[in-house]
Amino acid sequence: MKNKYTAFSAIIIGLLSACQTQTVKTGPVIKGFAADSFSKFIVIDSANKMLGSYLNSIHYTMNDTDLQSLIIDVKQLRQYLDSNPTGEQITHLKLMFAHTLSYANSPMANTNAGYQSKALTIIVAGYNDSGKYIFYNNNSVLDYTQPCPPICPPGKAGSPLLVN
Q1: Within the chain, which residues score under 70 in pLDDT?
Q2: Minimal CA–CA distance to 145: which of 115, 113, 116, 123?
Q3: E-assigned strand segments in the chain
């Protein structure tokens, strides 16, 4: 299960990297973007292989309750990244798996939810180069990812794989 979360996290981190408004000056530059020691761009074929492995493990064609993806509102993410009044720059995003607040407030709190889309979310917290968390308005982090299924995007983005 941990390996599935690791692959899923790597894909999400890669997608979120595209939302950054500034590039980091360390690491080799790949097509105008800086790469660091753990985040990298991968070709769509490799991403689809990773996605397919996860999707097949949850039998996604016969299953509409297990989580296939989580969608983050980029406008809110940009607002978080650009809003720090102290001038400290968010250089990394930490994506943390969490139970949704409704699940955490239910009698099922503190029990394994498996991959249930109604039970899982990601908390996004930014931090600087020295590892200090930078909170939105000094006391908030980004929550609520839209679970797919049941709420998948329209068009090609609704596909569980990456398609042109």
Answers
A1: 1-37, 85
A2: 123
A3: 29-30, 33-34, 69-71, 92-99, 120-127, 133-134, 146-148
CB 69 within 8 A of CB 117: no
Reduced to 3 states (helix: H, G, I; strand: E, B; else coil), residue 12 is helix
Give the other-Cβ count within 10 Å of 9's Cβ.
14
pLDDT for 27: 40
One-letter amino acid identity for 13? I
Q: Three-state SS string across 29-64, please? A: EECCEECCCCCCCCCHHHHHHHHHHHHHHCCHHHCC
Query: How far is the C-alpha of 116 from the C-alpha of 101, rounded, in Å?
Result: 14
Summarize the chain as % helix, strand, coil (round to 5). 30, 20, 50
pLDDT at 31: 52
Residue from 39, 43, 18, 19 nearest 28 by CA: 39
**What is the number of other CB atoms lying within 10 angstroms of the CB of residue 15?**
14
Q: Residue 41 corresponds to which amino acid? A: F
Q: Which residues contact 113 (CB under 8 A, 6 or more apart)?
A: 99, 103, 119, 120
